Amino acid sequence: MSSVETQQEQLPQSDPSPSPNSCSSFELIDMDAGGLYEPVSPHWFYCKIIDSKETWIPFNSVDSQQLEEAYGSGKDCNGSVVPTDGGRYDVHLGERMRYAVYWDELASEVRRCTWFYKGDKDNKYIPYSESFSQVLEETYKLAVTLDEWKKKLESPNREIIILHNPKLMVHYQPVPGSDEWGSTPTEQGRPRTVKRGVENISVDIHCGEPLQIDHLVFVVHGIGPACDLRFRSIVQCEICSE
Fold first, then answer.
1. DSSP type of residue 79
2. Which of helix, strand or coil describes residue 7?
3. What's residue 240's pLDDT?
4. What is the pLDDT of residue 30?
5. Three-state SS for 144?
6. Which of 38, 68, 175, 195 is the most exposed place for a label (fewest CB within 10 A)?
């Protein structure tokens, strides 16, 4: 029996108003909120290759809202193009790709994100794919509605995700060689934290750029293609400073 279940059995049932200063009070409120399901709020991200590593960066609040409105408009997304970042990038919604408008740059993958897990080499959260996030959300909705937890799911990459309760959800990677004979992957190794909704992860989301332009700056670059000591171009330096 898990520690969460043990705590539930030991909590008094006759106290209808637990103290708000107690941590266990918040856990009790969350666990007793069966049936109070609220849909997750999505936020849009794009993927950049920084130092040879994929990094998922959130769109600012205004751009994410515009992308969500275009996504939910009911129109065919295949021909939908949404300008972002003050018009410097266009997002082709059907392709889920982000293209630079004024310079040459590799296109970036775009994703409508609702569920995340913590990476293995840093503290940044990585979004699940849109299709698997939908599976996670449907499983979460069922668990909340029926108040039945400890739901176990297997991702397309044979990773294990367990929803213990609304505050404890974990992700296990498959152990190399554990499925040589077709066996079912198990929860082994160090678990990663799983979070639902962008508001529950640590990430900086800017409000957006002002509609009115106050200043126009002309940059004259006359020292060759290298812009800094790392020999990055002026476009790369501009992107990293966003």
1. G
2. helix
3. 59
4. 42
5. helix
6. 38
